[in-house]
Amino acid sequence: MGTGRRGLAGIAMATAIVAGAAVTVTTAEALPGGAATIARGDCPAAREKVERLEGRITPNACAFMERQITFGEMPTGTPPAYGDLAHPRVRAYLDIFDPEATLWEAGSAAQRGRTAIGTSITGSLGLAPSLTYRGTDVVADGSTVMFGQWNEVTLKGHTVAYPQIARNVLGDEGRTLQARRYYDRAVLFRDTLPGVAPAPLFAGITDAGTPGDGERSQAGLPDQTGLPVQAGFRARAEEVPERLAAWNAGDVDALLARTRGARLNGPGLAAPLASEAGKRAYLQRLFATADLDLKAGQVAVGETTTYVEWHGTVSVHDGEKIRTGVPFGIVERFGPGGEWELYFDTLPLVATQAEIGTLFQKLAS
Predict the structure, then answer these.
(1) Which of 78, 143, 202, 216 is 20 to 30 A away from residue 119, measured at CA?
(2) Domain 28-195 architecture
(3) Under a CB-based contact definition with an 8 Å cutoff, are residues 273 and 263 in contact?
(4) What whole-number distance in Å separates Cα of residue 170 and Cα of residue 145?
(5) InterPro entries of this UniProt entry (predicted)?
């Protein structure tokens, strides 16, 4: 997504770090319902540290958010050796997780248990010891927490900033039982490995659509249909199966119809798309590259913001070959200001697993 402020949660493993959506920085008081939110006493320490916190904040959700924030703010100091689970920042990270937790990172199989998860984060901190993040748009819905964050890291002398969604299902004491991380790893290589990084999947897509469309956006209009703006998707029981079917079928019309008038932001975009042509071109590029096979994941609904998770695999059209069974997922965020944001990893859509491994080796060298 763009280079602005918004981020969404989680921390990446050794082969990950990432990209997402851009919006304007605001104070909590300026947000819809902001004054009432500030006045609420539930989880004040977390509220003070994130830009927006909505939903049903249980004591377990509060405990999780406090641990998540602690890790994001903590300096690494001397980077841990690979597999050093006693390193202070590694211990703080593991404190987020239940001993039997699973963690899914973009483009990989899920890790299980603190040893595997901790070993992974030692690789991440070895590659990127400067990695920190702050909470942005967070929604807690009982035992499900969608933690938005804005991550910053220095790689090969370049500051890389990106949003991420950390989706967590919590157990006792607010420790994570199942975690999934949604971000675009391609942003890591764009400036750090020029000439080596894969061509961006969504290159050339703007509000004018794609080069050669001959259609331009109209300034000041939310889209080009002339039809009324639709209410934000609220993930009601009858809506979820229909939207899942649209993603899996690559049904651009259905996806756009339910979010008419919203501004679309996603990986690879320098600015949100307001025009019908731009949004259509973005989705068509995705579906021309990937056949999705997703299932409905977790949903978190706040006062003004809704997160919806779709998780499964993708088949990638790679020239004359098709790569099947690639782990993949998307999180959609529907915000109070007409935002429609997508969080997913484009890297496995433009590079094979072997090519991705080579990129990370070059990044670490």
Answers:
(1) 143
(2) Roll (3.10)
(3) yes
(4) 8
(5) NTF2-like_dom_sf
Strands 339-343 and 144-155: unpaired
All structural domains of the chain with their residue ranges = 28-195, 239-353
pTM of this structure:
0.86
pLDDT in tens, the chain (365 residues): 754 444 333 334 333 333 333 333 333 444 444 444 444 568 999 999 999 999 999 999 999 999 999 999 999 999 999 999 999 999 999 999 999 999 998 778 899 999 999 999 999 999 999 999 999 999 999 899 999 999 999 999 999 999 999 999 999 999 999 999 999 999 999 999 999 999 999 999 999 876 544 333 333 334 444 444 445 677 787 899 999 999 999 999 999 998 888 999 999 999 999 999 999 999 999 999 999 999 999 999 999 999 999 999 999 998 889 999 999 999 999 999 899 999 999 999 999 999 999 999 999 99
